[in-house]
Specification:
This protein is of the alpha/beta class. The protein has helices at 15-27, 46-52, 69-92, 110-113, 128-134, 137-146, 155-165, 181-184, 190-199, 221-230, 249-260, 275-279, 296-303, 317-321, 334-345, 348-365, 368-380; strands spanning 2-8, 33-39, 55-57, 98-101, 120-124, 149-152, 172-174, 207-212, 237-242, 266-269, 284-286, 308-311, 326-329.
Length: 382
């Protein structure tokens, strides 16, 4: 029985973390493996990690201490170091055979985990902007140096590793995404539609352009707002973005942009536990990202028969969308996006045709049995 340590950089509700949990839930049923989880930092879905396996925390939970400022800093550093030393000692005793690091953002702790004297395979969910954004150069070099195998979440990610980081193609495996399990049996509820539209003062027959994900420049939220601005004179087109947190700087900044642009046709909704309810009221999904390796949201949209707009040269979404279940727009061409939205709004037959094509394709390309078998083969490979 192979014993594996899976390492996640945090427990936030984002694609890489959610996909890992989905794979681990399936792996739990396989008697040839046992595994534990190490969270470098916590997050709002910690409980889901804890539920699936024994979970260790690299960062000690915060505890208030009534001491002087310098004393607080000293104690914080001391407690952190002691906690991490103890955690490493516990991990050494577990006799793991393999480490799967779930992101390139773990380069700061890989040299420490190398003390376990076992191979490290890195699951890469990032393209070049993500690499620049989520890790320091020296930490990324640790990832490149200490990983024996790279698991790419899409062909675009594989190509980037080869082209920009000279990784040998023979040590890169491409792992297809699992179908989002929550979308498999999702049933549209008209009452939910009415409730959500009423909540945001969206007219019952409005055409809704949806966006989903964290709120930042890489996700192209500024582009989403520019498109909305060009269509704000159309009283029947609304834009709904789902994701992000109110305490994030980018989230607050884009609220300012929205208000300064006078965009009463735009609604921001922070991250929710039931995103499919929101996606179900979209008429189309607009993936405004400057870069996205292979967003799970496109699979969910396809399963709900929603046409998808995305940009060329922006990652893996175009590999799925192609010319039959939406449209690939020239990179950051706002005017072309506007034209395509108006065209789809006025053509119900085309929207239905694209939606049906996407739903058929997602089941053909993302067969759960095939994806999970590939995952197991990668874990087994020396």
């Amino acid at each position: 029985m192979k014993n594996i340590l899976f390492v996640s950089h945090d427990a936030n509700r984002a694609g890489a973390q959610i996909l890992l949990i989905r794979f681990l839930r399936l792996l739990k049923e396989n008697k040839e493996f046992k595994f534990s989880i190490l969270l470098k930092e916590g997050g709002i879905i910690e409980s889901e990690f804890v539920e699936v396996a024994t979970t260790y925390f690299w960062e000690r939970p915060k505890v208030a201490v009534k001491k002087s400022f310098l004393n607080k800093i000293y104690r914080k550093i001391k407690n952190k170091n002691n906690h991490q030393i103890k955690t490493l000692e516990i991990l050494k005793k577990q006799n793991f055979d393999l480490i799967i690091s779930n992101t390139i953002a773990n380069g700061d702790i890989l040299p420490i985990l190398k003390q376990l004297n076992i191979p490290i395979k890195t699951y890469v969910h990032e393209l070049e902007m993500g690499i620049q954004q989520y890790t320091k150069p020296e930490n990324f070099q640790n990832v490149l140096k200490l990983s024996s195998i790279f698991i790419a979440c899409s062909e675009s990610v594989k190509e980037n590793l080869i082209k920009n980081h000279q990784i040998d193609t023979t040590i890169i495996e491409v792992l297809p995404s699992l179908l989002p399990d929550s979308a498999l049996n999702y049933q549209t509820d008209i009452l939910v539609h009415e409730k959500l539209k009423n909540r945001y003062n969206i007219p019952p027959n409005a055409f809704i352009v949806g966006g989903m994900g964290t709120v930042n420049l890489r996700k192209g939220v500024d582009i989403f707002l520019q498109v909305a601005s060009k269509l704000k004179s159309n009283p029947n087109i609304f834009f709904l973005w789902v994701g992000g947190q109110e305490n994030e700087i980018d989230y607050r900044n884009f609220q300012i942009d929205k208000n300064r642009l006078g965009l009463s046709n735009v609604v921001f909704q922070t991250s929710v536990e039931n995103p499919l309810d929101y996606m179900s009221i979209f008429d189309i999904l607009f993936v405004s990202s400057r870069e996205d390796p292979y967003p799970l949201v496109i699979l969910e949209a396809a399963m709900l028969s929603k046409p998808i707009l995305c940009f060329d040269k922006a990652g893996g979404a175009k590999d799925f969308v192609e010319d039959d279940c939406g449209a690939i727009i020239e990179y950051l061409d706002v005017d072309k996006v506007v034209q395509k939205i108006v065209e789809l709004k006025d053509n119900v037959v085309l929207r239905k045709q694209m939606g049906n094509s996407g739903r058929k394709k997602v089941f053909e390309r993302h067969n759960q049995k095939v994806a999970f078998q590939t995952f197991v083969e990668i874990l087994d490979k020396n």
